[in-house]
Amino acid sequence: MEVEQSKKPLDPLVKTALTLCIGLIVITVVGMILTAPDRSIPPYSVMAQQGEIVTVNVPPSTTDPEIEALLVRFQTVGHGDRKQFARLKIKPTTPGDPAGLYQRVTIYVFDNPGLSEEASLKEYLRGRDPLARAGFERAVRGLYRLAADTELGVMGFVPESGAKGERPSMGVRILFQGKAGTS
Q1: What pLDDT is attached to residue 70?
Q2: What is the domain partition of the chain in residue ranges?
Q3: Which residues lie below 8 Å from residue 150, measured CB to CB, with a gap of 6+?
Q4: pLDDT tens readout for residues 14-31
Q5: Quick one: angle between helices 130-139 and 118-126, nearest 10?
Q6: Cα 177 from Cα 72, distance rounded (Å)
Q7: How far apart are CA 160 and CA 137, in angstroms?
Q8: What is the pLDDT of residues 95-154, one digit of tens each?
Q9: Are the beta carbons of 71 and 109 closer than 8 angstroms?
């Protein structure tokens, strides 16, 4: 004789717990997808900012093509809605400008956190110590400069136009240069 076993329905408490677990897993996966870091650019940290000048640090193993991708990302933001610089963790560089919060910005990319810190940037901007200035400029791996009407992306260091006594670093390679995008 076969004994038929009838299936018991799940207890409402068990159903609630299973629904809750599955819901939490779905929420976690969706959250991870939505907040995933942008893998098209290298990881970076904004280390210091003095007005329009910003220093960014990338890991020492960052390759030149990765830094180029980061500079192109800055260019893309400069050509579009410049408020997107805030999403890149850059504070407004021209907060009092009626034309916008990011009308001028210079971003120096380093792979040495010591040279990209606030103290190094202040020392560089003071310009009193030629050795410190030279060390800062030599360590720049990439540069993005956005002005009212021009834009420049360079691997290496290029001084501001008209800066006396400053020369481009060795091996400078201009990635893009020309008219700035509209805000």
Answers
A1: 92
A2: 45-179
A3: 177, 178, 179, 180
A4: 889 999 999 999 998 888
A5: 120
A6: 11
A7: 12
A8: 888 888 888 899 999 998 888 899 989 998 888 888 888 888 989 999 999 987 788 999
A9: yes
